[in-house]
């Protein structure tokens, strides 16, 4: 009887402890952790909030509030150069995402296969574009394209120049690795027995892939594509060095303007870009949740 | 049906587009930079094909370059250290909340992370400018104005801001996987708070610390846009020197030599860091 009571008590205390265990054993006090969290989240959001508020400020210069206005947004929508830049950005991001997602997904499928002698090297090589600083990648691509075009002209008389397509090629080069890593994670969770079962039931590899595997790793592929799209839209450095004359994306256009000055119009562009990215994140999360449900 | 040889052949086939693309548009350009670094500069600014070590000799004698490299390294170290110190407790806080709150907290970190990075830099220009929000605020109390913009502090602030999510998310991923019962076990076995942290939690979250530090350090040391926009002419980092050599100075051969030295030092630093963190892990967890 005594033993049972003791055992029960032990279970009880264990049970009672198991939930707040983390709290009880936090290396620093709870209050310090909470304070740190409040501090970091404030730090993350104050600049963004200030930016959005100022995009509605009637003052043309300075940080003083002079009343609410939508003038800057009106000017923005009338600005044809920005419209062109946005369209260019979307074309680049769309094409490079399509290519990088296809190539990256294939690469992830290759990496999944065991007993392949090139696997380890390939896996390591895929991390290199993530580790090399983007400015080095950008200048090396500039050097490469320039030399290649000169050689093409000298050898076969083919006249090529940097343009939209050189930016797309370069964006694919840095996006492949990211797509492969993201798709690889979702492949790691894929149950191989499903594939074997389908094969045993007489499905061809092609059928197995499209009917069984692809629908199950679909969210991972979509996640990779979304990351690739965002990285491409976000990129400034590689775009800056690999674009041809007259090619302006949203980032290179905004860069040119903010180098010169601070203006309420740029506050407005920034706010819209912020709205777009927030919508994208929330939409992707919502989609994932719906798939899981 | 699934024999090893067809499986192998299929793997090569699937890997080939990535291999070809990266071979042509990642590896070949890097090899080209290596070759360029041994060439000269023609009078019209193009690359002169003339093998020599002149660029490297000039580079080692160039005091301005070493000062730039030192400034970049110093800024990147400060940024990495501060983000790590602030993010670890935050990730701990996030990982110990209920699953529902965790989701909200992660989302709240991701929104600034998905915001265009030029927008994030620009926000700091608005905040820290001579006539900016901070100086207005200080002016209310008859303080300031502070000259922050065009100084390393402005660059460091904006870099911390921009890189913070790259530190928080890997640390959170590492802490979320941690089995909290181990902390209790350590305490029951008589370990103090500090010992529990140092010998149980820290070694198991090292992969997150390593990943976060590299993800923050590499882009920071190679930054070009942040120092260009917020540092003005006073904060010259390696990225700015590189873009100058490949841009208006048009000395690609010299720029290539800078890239090579820079990449070598960077890879050396990463390997050293990997080695150091692994040693802590091995030392604390024998077996």
TrEMBL record, chain B:
Q: Does the keyword Transmembrane helix apply?
A: yes
Sequence intervals crossing the membrane: 12-38, 69-92, 104-123, 154-175, 196-218, 252-274
The answer to whether UniProt assigns keyword Repeat to this entry is no
Coarse class of the protein's main subcellular location: membrane
Location of the protein in the cell: Cell membrane
Domain ABC transmembrane type-1, chain residue ranges per copy = 69-273
Which keywords annotate this record? Cell membrane, Membrane, Transmembrane, Transmembrane helix, Transport
Which membrane topology describes this protein? Multi-pass membrane protein
Which domain of life, per UniProt? Bacteria
Which family, according to UniProt? Belongs to the binding-protein-dependent transport system permease family. CysTW subfamily.
UniProt-recorded name of the protein? Spermidine/putrescine transport system permease protein PotB
Instruction: Identify the gene encoding this protein.
Output: potB
